[in-house]
Amino acid sequence: MADINIAKSQIFDVGFLDMDIDPIIDLFAEIEKLKKEKNAIILAHYYQEPDIQDVADYIGDSLGLAQKAERTDADIIVFAGVHFMAETAKILNPGKKVLLPDLKAGCSLSDSAPSGLFKLFKEKYPGHKVISYINCSAGIKALSDIICTSSNAHKIVESLPGDQPIIFAPDKNLGAYINKKTGRNMVLWNGACMVHEIFSLEKIMKLKKRNPEAKFIAHPECEDIVLAEADYIGSTTGLLNFTKSNVATEFIVATETGILHQMQKNSPDKVFIPAPPNNSCACNDCPHMKLNTLEKLYLCMKYELPEIIMDEELRLAAKRPIDLMLKISAQYGL
Ligand code: 13P
Ligand code: SF4
């Protein structure tokens, strides 16, 4: 009990990593043991560090993770991702314990849309349906008609009649990309992902010249000037599948660098080059995703903390547009 109290205070006051972990224990083996003992499943996003991906039961993009979370019969869902992802898992599974190794793992895109401001924004556009990218808080989801992810955004938008006015939030880049693809004129909330806006078009063009055989692939959260140069645009799962099936042996990859681990694992003989940021730091590592570590994952499973706790009224309001997304996705076989 004292142990748990120490864990609680560490998590909420100063963070998990200051706790002592015996340096000789095999974290991979301990995590496997905890999974079995507690009937826990680890769901990880492709942007997690390689060690976490390697210990996960399922690795996927935001849609795949939400679908997996909806279907699991585990008692505990350990979400190796960011807060909105774990929150989505909790919204879908009120009876299960949902853990996030670091509660501070947020998302710049989600933070760009505070629900109070968004409510006022929405009031300016009567008659509009709201489609929100899953990278948003439960508060924004509750104000939305349908949720989408980067792998189903096109289909979700097309599920509404062509003359239906739409607000798309919070990612202006994904919204602009879908506007272009569908010929719609959705009103866009002015949000963006700090990682996907950091790529330097100038450096990418130089890299393409130096590697003329390489395919340039990009996530739709990137700016339109970057997307305009891409040979393929898709969600993280889409990008991974493209590298597996395409005959090219070199790829310049414009998304968070975590995905390169799976690309390299699946195609060990191919070469993957991270698209360069517009400065010399490692800014295409998501600082939020990378807050999770194997050590925090282990401690979180051991102490079953930090846990995602939700207000029931908010949960129900946020669930409705997620359920609709999952239903439409299933209709399209996504
Ligand atoms: P997907 O998981 O839909 O590819 O989105 C990437 C992302 O930025 C998640 O935070
Ligand atoms: Fe959010 Fe961007 Fe990080 Fe994804 S990569 S979690 S959108 S900040």
Compact description:
The protein is α/β, with parallel strands linked by helices and 334 residues long. It has helices spanning 2-14, 27-38, 50-55, 62-71, 83-92, 108-111, 115-123, 138-142, 153-158, 172-182, 201-210, 224-227, 236-245, 259-266, 294-303, 312-331; strands at residues 40-45, 58-60, 76-80, 97-99, 129-133, 146-148, 166-169, 187-188, 215-218, 232-233, 250-254, 271-274. It folds into three domains: 6-106 and 288-310, NadA-like (Rossmann fold), CATH 3.40.50; 109-193 and 318-331, NadA-like (Rossmann fold, 3-Layer(aba) Sandwich), CATH 3.40.50; 201-274, 3-Layer(aba) Sandwich (Rossmann fold), CATH 3.40.50.10800.
Description:
The chain is built from 16 helices and twelve strands. The protein has 334 residues and is an alpha/beta fold. It folds into three domains: 6-106 and 288-310, Rossmann fold, CATH 3.40.50.10800; 109-193 and 318-331, 3-Layer(aba) Sandwich (Rossmann fold); 201-274, NadA-like (Rossmann fold). A four-stranded parallel β-sheet has the order 2-1-3-4, with helices on both faces. Residues 47, 82, 107-109, 135, 193-195, 256, 286, 288-289 line the site of iron/sulfur cluster.
